[in-house]
Amino acid sequence: MSDEFDRLHGIEKVAVESVLNRSRALAAKIANELRNKRPEHFVDEFSLADIYYSLEHVADVLSTVNGSQAPHPQPHR
Questions:
Q1: CA–CA separation, 58 and 77 (whole Å)
Q2: In Å, how far are 14, 22, 66 from 18, measured between CA atoms?
Q3: Could you tell me if residue 37 is left (phi over 0), alpha (psi between -120 and 50 degrees) or otherwise beta?
Q4: Chain CA centroid to CA 61, Å
Q5: DSSP strand E in 6-75: where?
Q6: Which residues contact residue 30 at a Cβ distance below 8 angstroms, ignoring those fewer than 6 apart?
Q7: pLDDT in tens, 32-76
Q8: Are 37 and 51 in contact (CB under 8 A)?
Q9: For residues 45 and 74, what is the distance between their CA atoms, to the nearest angstrom?
Q10: Measuring CA to CA, which of 19, 22, 41, 55 is 20 to 30 A from 62?
Q11: 23 CB contacts (<8 Å, ≥6 apart)?
Q12: pTM surpassing 0.85?
C-alpha cells in the first residue's frame, strides 16, 4: 500500500475502499452492457462518442494513478 493510503484515518480508508468497490461493480456492469450491444443499437453517434470519451477519461485517470501519463482524449463533438 502507498504511504498516502497508510496515512488516511480509518473512516477515510473505508470510504476509499467503498468507492473502489462501487467503481469495479460499475465497470463490470458497463462491460456487460457493451458486450451485448451491436452497432445498430447506437443510432445517435453523439451518445456513442460520449461513452467513448468518458471511458478514455477514466483510463487517463487510472494511468495517472498508476504513475504514467496517457494522452488526454479529445471531445468528438
A1: 19
A2: 6, 6, 19
A3: beta
A4: 8
A5: none
A6: 55
A7: 988 888 888 877 889 889 989 999 999 999 898 876 555 555 555
A8: no
A9: 16
A10: 41
A11: none
A12: no
